[in-house]
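Per your request, structure below.
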């Protein structure tokens, strides 16, 4: 984190340099939509807001009052962290091997609406 001079590091499955399998086109395009919406709302370019690999400095984390407990958590965390300090994020490529439902994948279609609501609630309406 010190080398990158940021307090928030977000993993990205879509940065160049790492070969990765694509699990589902529906999930891929859904993630692209959520990532682009989040990028527009906070005016910071992201490539993969839904990647589960995140590293956040304790000082920044303690300033964020998190409310979400499912997939909206990632959007809430990114939006609130970057509202505290803009351009305080770096993305790093990560290796990723997709899982299916039998292997523990929990995302379902209703979660997409919950994620959209989270982006709207914290990004547009600026809930605390």
């Amino acid at each position: 984190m010190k080398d990158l001079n940021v307090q928030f590091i977000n993993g990205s499955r879509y940065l160049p340099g790492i070969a990765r399998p694509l699990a589902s086109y529906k999930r891929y395009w859904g993630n692209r939509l959520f990532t682009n919406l989040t990028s527009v709302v906070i005016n910071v370019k992201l490539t993969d807001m839904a990647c589960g690999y995140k590293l956040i400095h304790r000082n920044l984390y303690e300033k964020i009052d998190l409310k979400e407990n499912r997939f909206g958590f990632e959007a809430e965390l990114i939006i609130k962290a970057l509202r505290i300090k803009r351009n305080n994020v770096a993305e790093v490529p990560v290796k990723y091997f997709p899982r299916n439902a039998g292997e523990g994948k929990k995302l379902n279609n209703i979660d997409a609406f919950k994620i959209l609501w989270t982006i709207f609630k914290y990004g547009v309406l600026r809930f605390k």
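The first helix runs from residue 25 to 42.

Regards,
D.
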